[in-house]
Amino acid sequence: MSVKILIPTPLQKYTANQATIECGGGTVAELIDALEIACPDMKGRLRDEQGEPRRFLNIYVNSEDIRFLDGVKTPLNKGDEVSIVPAVAGG
């Protein structure tokens, strides 16, 4: 099953400057595993030591924040689009 991942500009240096990547996975966690295999330099950039998304990253499945779904256990379907969005802070 193929899912499209939208990679933010700051992380594209780990994906050979690709803005989108196609990977497979039945859940967001499995998709991140597949992305880290496809792009080994990405390992450790998306998840903390407990396997949860890093605090400064927001992950969306078809424009829905996974924090309001099932987190990294959110199921994925063929053709879904996953966006990785760095959090913006400032004042």
Automatic annotation (TrEMBL):
One family name in Pfam for this protein: ThiS
InterPro entries attached to this UniProt entry: Beta-grasp_dom_sf, Mopterin_synth/thiamin_S_b, Sulfur_Carrier/Prot_Modifier, ThiS/MoaD-like
CDD domains in UniProt: Ubl_CysO_like
Bilayer-spanning residue ranges: none
SUPFAM superfamilies tied to this protein: MoaD/ThiS
Domain of life, per lineage: Bacteria
PANTHER family found in the cross-reference section: SULFUR CARRIER PROTEIN CYSO, SULFUR CARRIER PROTEIN SLR0821-RELATED
Name of this chain's protein: MoaD/ThiS family protein
Species assigned in the record: Pannus brasiliensis CCIBt3594
